[in-house]
Amino acid sequence: MIPLRHLSRAAVPALAILLTTYGSLGTGKAAAGVTLTETPELAAAPELAAAPEFRYPVTRNAAYRDIPGTEQTFTAAVDAPVYLWTRNLSTRNVTALSAGDNIGNTFAIRCRDSAGQPVPGEQGAYWATNLVPPGETAVTPTLRWLFVPPATATYTCLLSIASYSTIIENGRSVTMRIPAGAELAQATYRNARRWTLQAADATVVRPGSTLTTLGTTYTPEVPEADQIAITQDAALTTCKAGSTVSGCSGGSSANPGTTVRTWIHAQPQTSAGAACGTALTSPMVTRPISTAKHHLTATNTLYLTKSQLAGCARMRVTLRVQNVSGNPVLVHGGYSGNIAATHGVGFEY
What we know:
By secondary structure, the chain is mostly beta strands. It has one domain: Jelly Rolls, CATH 2.60.120. 1% of the residues lie in helices and 44% in strands. The chain is built from 1 helix and 25 strands. The strands form 5 sheets. Strands 2, 3, 6, 7, 10, 23 and 24 form a 7-stranded mixed β-sheet that branches. Strands 13, 14, 16, 20, 22 and 25 form a 6-stranded antiparallel β-sheet that branches. A hairpin with a 2-residue loop joins strand 23 and strand 24. The protein is globular and about 65 Å long. Residues 1-38 have low confidence and may be disordered.
């Protein structure tokens, strides 16, 4: 296990997010369309043995493949959650693709016990979007999740990928590759908590409206830690006309997709739950999700110092999802095979 690091403020630029947006799609950059996050863990974790290049075929139906060389095996105590996140992870097409040859991609962190069986309950989290050629040649996820050990034992967590498309028919094949260097990093932080949007709370956000969702109350508990990190990551799907996605109705072919804006809102509170101090927010991130892009995991991060709580005992944390324009957008809840869709994490450092 990696020991707790109490990082200096200089090591973590406050609110250092929103580095890349869909405005760079036409540049051919590998990170186009992805919000990158410089988290405190990046400074805390040691260098890992990076995975080799991995080439694999696209399938017609989604099916996970484990990414060789990304396994992390560790012994964890039941009261010591392990924060996991990706570094240097992307996928790109090897086979030439034309307009309309969209490839769905779902990356996942998945954890297993020492016998190789999936852990009980929540087993990981996913990040998903389509690769839309010819403007895009790669997708680069920001994927993070908190593993909560069900018992003190040895576990293995790793990265998986599913790439899929309806163009795989009549003998056609497409090869994708994950470049060498992909890593699953890990660290432990005190007062680490996770929360997941349940299936019953999945919601369609109509144009011009803002949803408040993924709420939790986070209470600082570590006196010697002076900073808090909160992540809130939402799995979103634009609801095109005639969408077959459950609950994704009301789309029009006149719209090219959805423009959506997301941010974290944290309201300090007294121990009794009354509003206290000034509300804190992460920067707002605006992303277009085209009909061809179909879906996207919108990542959001809020860094704050405890002094910003102004003496308040706790804070109510929520995610705001604003449909700026276009078709309705679905905020997914629940799990795909016990892999979390929309989820959050908080910890002190």
